[in-house]
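Quick log. Single chain, no ligands specified.
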Amino acid sequence: MTRSIILIVSIFTFYSCRNEQNIGTNKKSQNISTENVIDGDLKKIPVLNLGTFHMGETSDANKTEFDENDRKNQIAVKEIVQKLSAFRPTVIIVETPPSFNEKLQAEYKEYVSNPKMKLKDPSEIELLAYELGRISGTTRIYGIDHKMGYNYNIGNEIVNSIDSLWYNKYYKNPLKYYALVNLDQNKLNLLDKLKLTNNNSYLDFLIEVNAEMLAHVGSEKGFEGADEATKYYQRNIRMYSNLNRINLTENDRVFVLLGASHTAYLRDFISRSPKYKMVNTFEYLK
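-> predicted structure:
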């Protein structure tokens, strides 16, 4: 009996020592592997991801009052551009489809050579992106938009058997649930509008109000609202995929100018990416 106990203890001790050695070896291997990664591929591409309201004509349901042809407004945009130019972008990304890139690049090149050229009903692309690129010496500009229709009004078009009380209550005044950003944009100057639009609470609000609230909508056995919301997610992740089609290197500095609901999604995608580094927008909106 005693010899059996001694044998069991010896076997246990032997395997314990081997396990400790293996653990030590694994830790050493992990340390070596980590060191190699740190010494290698961790330099990320900086991205300044700026959300804006649409300054020109837009099909969006919600619009911000802004006369793009007003001289004072154009001067205010240029003041913002001066702040953003400290980022020194090498690439500019805007909200047009990639199929428009050839025309976009030709128009941008024309603007750079003649910044006083007449722009009819300019949008944020002409007013802000073109001027930022011109004074920053940026030579590359691309669109990443991907048009997809989705019915954000479906909650008012079907019998909602999921959560109609909350859905209807929320849409009576959505912003009241976001105290930090519950402001009237039309009473703010341009700089303060952009600060509001790029606040994380406001970006979260845009995702909720444009898509995720639809998860509260559906028929008794259906997911009509959720299925519509996935279309908006799909549009935005396809826009992100278009960004990833562009040949970028660690030496690039990427400025992205989109409608703020798209900015909200790209904020999430880019923040998790090992390829990109999200730059603090508010460092350039002082």
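The CA atoms of residues 178 and 216 lie 19 Å apart.
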